């Protein structure tokens, strides 16, 4: 019996209309285009504005595009895995809220929180459901409204983040395509360097937590950078070695878009030229869980069936990982 693998068979995305560029950001906080570009590599980012607009509202648009492109119907969806660190609310899961907004009934639906590694984690979890033979049509949504937890008076963190939503369809295949291998890891030491302190059971929301700005994301930049450079590069090189992948037969590195210097360091360790690396950080910033699928969405028409891809991410926790993926379809005409 042929082995069942999980293949990405379609992808949709949504980017908010509002563009916050470095010039406008410099009017809000003491920074400049030169400072941001030199240290991070971001020129602009998208911000989801509007009264009562939530993370799931972006995801709805991403899934609608996916439905339109693939012909998938709401009643066919069996499972939704929603990767996010900015849920609509603590309860219920944003996956169930999304299902309700889209008319998806009776599907299993749950959120996962692995910060910037969220898509990598969700893809591997989803692959296991597909490989089991129990699920045939699976949605992985990676969506974050980072503007909702960004302090726009903090010059170190506010240039980093943008808002975006993505959705992929995962289906079974018996061809040598799809998710081929994975390395997923974590180290809880990261909880001391990248976190949002307020709002959970440790520091429930109060006047004090609001006054102390504990409901915004915080990171100790130098420490996070050091770990990210090391872990993303290590796991990507390890993936190449154990699958006999070389710089010549790897078609694309799809890295998490957090910092241009981290991306460049990872590519160097892998022996890759820049033309084999998907990079859109300059236009969208760090959209956390959405960055990798946003790259796949933007490069979709350049991907060929059978292309070798390594997806690599590092995020809060610390969490990190790499997936070896063989692309499952040719560009749709």
Could you provide a short overview of the structure?
With 333 residues, the protein is an alpha/beta fold. The protein has ten helices and 13 strands.
Architecture overview:
The protein is an alpha/beta fold and 333 residues long. It has 2 domains: 172 residues, Thiolase/Chalcone synthase (Peroxisomal Thiolase, Chain A, domain 1), CATH 3.40.47; 147 residues, Peroxisomal Thiolase, Chain A, domain 1 (3-Layer(aba) Sandwich). 30% of the residues lie in helices and 24% in strands. A 5-stranded mixed β-sheet has the order 1-7-6-4-5, sandwiched between helices. Strands 8-13-12-11 form a 4-stranded mixed β-sheet, sandwiched between helices. α4 links the parallel β4 and β5. α3 packs across α4 and α7 packs parallel to α8. The longest helix is centred in the last third of the chain and has 22 residues. The two termini are 33 Å apart.
Task: List its salient traits.
globular, 13 strands, Peroxisomal Thiolase, Chain A, domain 1, 333 residues, 5-stranded mixed β-sheet, alpha/beta
**Anisotropy-based shape:** globular
Class computed from helices, strands and strand pairing: alpha/beta
User: What is the tally of beta strands?
Assistant: 13
Order of helices and strands: EEHHEHEHEHEEEEHEHEHHHEE
How much is the average pLDDT? 95
Poorly predicted runs are none
Radius of gyration over C-alpha positions, nearest whole angstrom:
19 Å
Give the biggest beta sheet.
5 strands, mixed
Neighbour order of strands in the largest sheet: 1-7-6-4-5
Q: Percent of residues in beta strands?
A: 15-25%
In CATH terms, what is the fold-level topology of the largest domain? Answer: Peroxisomal Thiolase, Chain A, domain 1
> Which superfamily, in CATH terms, is the homologous superfamily of the largest domain?
Thiolase/Chalcone synthase
């Amino acid at each position: 019996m042929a082995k069942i693998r999980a293949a990405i068979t379609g992808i949709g995305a949504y980017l908010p209309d509002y563009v916050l560029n470095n010039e406008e950001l410099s009017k809000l906080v003491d920074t400049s285009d030169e400072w941001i570009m030199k240290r991070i590599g971001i020129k602009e980012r998208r911000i989801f504005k509007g009264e009562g607009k939530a993370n799931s509202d972006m995801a709805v648009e991403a899934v609608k595009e996916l439905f339109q492109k693939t012909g998938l119907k709401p009643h066919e969806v069996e499972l939704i895995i929603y990767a996010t660190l900015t849920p609509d609310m603590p309860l219920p899961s944003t996956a169930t809220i999304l299902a309700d907004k889209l008319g998806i009934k009776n599907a299993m639906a749950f959120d996962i929180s692995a910060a910037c590694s969220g898509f990598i984690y969700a893809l591997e979890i989803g692959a296991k459901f597909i490989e089991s033979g129990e699920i045939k049509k699976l949605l992985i949504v990676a969506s974050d409204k980072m503007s909702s937890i960004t302090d726009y008076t903090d010059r170190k963190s506010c240039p980093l983040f943008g808002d975006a939503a993505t959705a992929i369809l995962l289906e079974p295949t018996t061809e040598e395509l799809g998710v081929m291998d994975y390395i997923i890891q974590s180290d809880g030491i990261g909880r001391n360097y990248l976190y949002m302190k307020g709002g959970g059971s440790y520091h429930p929301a109060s006047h004090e937590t609001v006054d102390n700005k504990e409901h915004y994301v915080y990171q100790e930049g130098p420490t996070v950078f050091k770990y990210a450079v090391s872990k993303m590069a290590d796991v990507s090189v390890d993936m190449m070695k154990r699958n006999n992948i070389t710089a010549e037969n790897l078609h694309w590195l799809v890295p998490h878009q957090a910092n241009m210097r981290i991306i460049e360091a990872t590519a160097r360790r892998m022996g890759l030229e820049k033309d084999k690396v998907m990079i859109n950080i300059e236009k969208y910033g760090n959209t956390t869980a959405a960055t990798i699928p946003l790259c796949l969405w933007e490069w979709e028409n350049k991907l060929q069936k059978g292309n070798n891809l390594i997806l690599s991410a590092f995020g809060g926790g610390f969490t990190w990982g790499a997936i070896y993926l063989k692309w499952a379809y040719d560009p749709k005409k």
